User: Fold this.
Amino acid sequence: MLSHPTLMTSTEHPYSLEELKVVSEDSIEVDDKLSHVRVVFTPTVEHCSMATIIGLCIRVKLMRSLPSRFKVDILVAPGTHETEASINKQLNDKERVAAALENPNLLEIVEECLSPSFQTWT
Amino acid sequence: MELLDSNVDLKELQKLQGHADRVWGLAWNPAPHNCGGASAMLASCSGDKTLRIWQMGPTHRLDCSTILEDTHTRTVRSCAWSPCGKFLATASFDSTTAIWKYVGGDFECVATLEGHENEVKSVTWSSSGTFLATCSRDKTVWIWEVQPGDEYDCVAVLQGHSQDVKMVQWHPLVDVLVSVSYDNSIKVWAEDGDSDDWHCVQTLNEGSSGHASTVWSVAFNSSGDRMVTSSDDLTLKIWDTSSAISQTDTEGFASWRHLCTLSGYHGRTIFSAHWSSEGIIASGAGDDALCLFVEEKGNSIEEPSYRLLLKKEKAHDMDINSVRWNPKDQRILASASDDGTIKIWEVREIS
Assistant:
């Protein structure tokens, strides 16, 4: 993943989510001092499970790129999804996320989505 | 000398390392002398799929004496000792609950409780030793009766929560069970006097001054007339039950009312809270901080309230998932974290 100049600030690792084509520059807030990152993403498809998977991919990518001190909140852009409260709750429940990532099928999907060869979302 | 009136600090006595992933749960053995004469025994469970047992040796430090592995195939989320201290139950994301028995210096898996449709989140033994309870993302709470010969019979599958059930905890004195959930509610379950049917006797939700988001934990005080719950809504809530009825009456523990809400102390989800036998409430959260609270001694006319005794910022490098007071030494506290470590603390009065 390419690094994004304005997101570098004083974080130790570069990261970029534009390749996922769901996140724009304005929708990532980093507070290095508080070790807090907030990502707001717009799912490109209406389907609920896709939005959850995208959110999960973002979380995994950040988990692997950022120092462990960072607290990450991932939210669906308001007004873009019918069940956004329910998606947000799942994406920010670390126990649910941990269990999901122990599901081999789900993990395979996430790994595939994050692999460098995965260029576009259909 | 009353702890309430002094200044205290939290001294880090030891850091236990070894788990290869986040530590989710902790449990102090209530009767360690029944397990080979150890003065203290702590069980810890982890995302690394193992359970570790730490024993206090002659040096007064805890060393890892046993690793229970190759049983659960996914995260071990919760562990609990039986009241006699000879059995340990482990609840896993692999949807099973394993029962381990202390046999001649080692732990043997003597039973596997199956039935939940997906991840088991919590397991608890009743103080009577008669029952076990488990809960799961499948929204149910199961009650198991302990039979002779290491047999466990499921006696109830309790439905009522509309979402993932995060934790279950038996009342310290009577066979009353409390469950807390992702559906933001707290439910109290008891057996019907005559019919042996378990049912929900009370639900505490946002309407009853309950939580506004996922409730992660519940813990009782030693006398069983108060309980504390912790939530993703960043608050701790204290609940009280009328003690007008004799303490052995189950009904007396089925009507809880909101007493007090502690807010503004943690900036992220509060994953765990535990009550010491001395009355100190410890809480651990996603802000890496550990807090201690005590009851405010005030005007007897006013409603009881609680105040912050101490806040330890950066108690760990990452989220704190569990805090547990040592039942044998009421000033000793253990905390478990996403950072893979367990810390042992001592509450000390400072002059």
